[in-house]
From TrEMBL:
It holds the Pfam family tRNA_m1G_MT. Keywords: Cytoplasm, Methyltransferase, S-adenosyl-L-methionine, Transferase, tRNA processing. Residues 3-213 form the tRNA methyltransferase TRMD/TRM10-type domain. It catalyses: guanosine(37) in tRNA + S-adenosyl-L-methionine = N(1)-methylguanosine(37) in tRNA + S-adenosyl-L-homocysteine + H(+). It is found in: Cytoplasm. One of its GO terms (molecular function) is tRNA (guanine(37)-N1)-methyltransferase activity. This is tRNA (guanine-N(1)-)-methyltransferase. PANTHER family: TRNA (GUANINE-N(1)-)-METHYLTRANSFERASE. Its main location: cytoplasm. Belongs to the RNA methyltransferase TrmD family.
Amino acid sequence: MITFHVITLFSEVIRSYADESILKRAQKNKNIAVKIYNPRDFARDKHKKVDDTPYGGGPGMVMKAEPIVKAVEKAVGRKKHGMVKIIFLSPHGKQFTNHTASVFTKKYTDVVLIAGRYEGVDARVKKILRAEEWSVGPYILSGGELPALIILDAMSRQIPGVLGTHESLEEKRIAGRDVYTRPEVFEYKGKKYHVPKILLSGHHKRIDAFRTKK
Ligand code: SAM
């Protein structure tokens, strides 16, 4: 079982995706757990301030270090150091891939995902927490919630038992390939679109060969 600890100002974004379909089932079967921590709950001042203006000037706000460090401390508690991965989500990080998901899944019992907002998170957080900076792709999103969910989802699919045997075999067999379903002929704006004949043949060996070639 892997516990994902998501540090975010927008818990509903995480809940609404994680509590559906495969991830919902994975939580129910205790393959994964999803815990959410709002930095606001760890802010000390009476206004629960979690952001401030950037040193050196510039537009936007920066998320303050202390509420995030405290939230991560709460998440990690006394867990064994080597089993916990702390991920600082940033468009400038290393590119997260399916291979990373597979390696992390085998190595860690707890994954902390720090989702930034605004102009990002005070850079000292990375140093204090020895967090690794990871990106989900070469583009800039409005917040770290989607990146956190991408990593959570990709890792969960690698945990034995999360995908049913059938789903898992299908993933290996047809991953990345064109897929089709009924009807055999789909008519759109007067033109007919056919399913490749070989897929209707029932010859599994030939179908596999066709898909591999594709
Ligand atoms: N100007 C900031 C910069 O260049 O890093 C942009 C910050 S972005 C608007 C706000 C937050 O979204 C970031 O702190 C990060 O947590 C998250 N984020 C945006 N794009 C991301 C990506 N491609 N991968 C991972 N996290 C990303």
